[in-house]
């Protein structure tokens, strides 16, 4: 298993910039890597991407030096295992609401003694671990795999104190649009109450020593968030393309 450069930067207190993509085309990931982004988040929730296609996307990430992460639609341990065995180096899990949800996620992501992930002689382990012993591989894989559950609704926010106590979680990704929807604001997260809630969540996560992540629309917004201590900044391939296209057409 390769070093998770994105996790290393986060552990050093450095911000990371990346994109989420629902494209099954490995070329998109390759371009993002050669463009200098830190991570590429494969969207396994709002897409038709198959686990077979994930493996090819991961290969493109490895070639271009970008960290492959994935948002997976459920914490089904067999589904999580397929993504990880393909070489994904971090998991973003939507729909997390309780500590039990997080415990189940950690069990699926981590090898024993921290979890219950099964070990197979597959590509992520260089097919029988290459020259590395099984014990060393298991320890290294547990250290390198990033775990970033999403906070998407009021129940998750209400349970945040409990969620922050779960071992093995590196940080939390705040989803402003879904959180606003759960608060009854169906037109978006631009309302003062939503902003106040998110600000409180950011401070709680930071105080617990965990990584804070959220979505950003542009570089100026990313800079402002980084100045507030948000280190995991997420744009989208579609959003960046649309913004670049609009800017190109205007000029």
From TrEMBL:
One family name in Pfam for this protein: HpcH_HpaI
Statement: the UniProt record of this protein carries the keyword Heme: no
Presence of the UniProt keyword Metal-binding in the record: yes
GO molecular function, one term: aldehyde-lyase activity
Domain HpcH/HpaI aldolase/citrate lyase: 21-235
Cited InterPro entries: Aldolase/citrate-lyase_domain, HpcH-HpaI_aldolase, Pyrv/PenolPyrv_kinase-like_dom, Pyrv_kinase-like_dom_sf
GO cellular component, one term: cytoplasm
Keywords, ordered alphabetically: Lyase, Metal-binding
Family listed: Belongs to the HpcH/HpaI aldolase family.
The protein's name: HpcH/HpaI aldolase
Organism: Fibrella aestuarina BUZ 2
Organism lineage string: Bacteria, Pseudomonadati, Bacteroidota, Cytophagia, Cytophagales
């Amino acid at each position: 298993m390769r070093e998770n450069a994105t996790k290393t930067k986060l552990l050093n207190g450095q911000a990371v910039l990346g994109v989420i993509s629902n494209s099954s085309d490995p070329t998109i990931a390759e371009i993002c890597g050669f463009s200098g982004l830190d991570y590429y988040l494969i969207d396994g929730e709002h897409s038709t991407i198959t686990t077979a296609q994930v493996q090819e996307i991961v290969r493109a990430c490895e070639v271009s030096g970008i960290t492959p992460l994935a948002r997976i639609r459920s914490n089904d341990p067999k589904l999580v295992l397929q993504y990880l065995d393909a070489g994904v180096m971090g998991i973003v899990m939507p729909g997390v609401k309780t500590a039990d949800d997080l415990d189940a996620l950690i069990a699926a992501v981590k090898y024993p003694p921290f979890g219950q992930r099964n070990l197979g002689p597959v590509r992520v382990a260089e097919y029988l671990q290459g020259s590395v012993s099984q014990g060393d591989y298991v320890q290294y894989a547990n250290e390198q795999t990033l775990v970033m559950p999403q906070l998407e609704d009021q129940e998750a926010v209400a349970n945040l104190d409990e969620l922050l106590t779960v071992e093995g979680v590196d940080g939390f990704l705040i989803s402003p649009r879904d959180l606003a929807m759960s608060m009854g604001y169906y037109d978006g997260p631009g309302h003062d109450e939503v902003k106040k809630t998110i600000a409180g969540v950011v401070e709680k996560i930071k105080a617990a020593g965990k990584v804070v992540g959220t979505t950003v629309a542009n570089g100026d917004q990313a800079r402002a968030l980084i100045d507030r201590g948000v280190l995991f900044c997420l744009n989208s391939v579609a959003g960046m393309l649309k913004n670049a296209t609009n800017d190109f057409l205007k000029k």
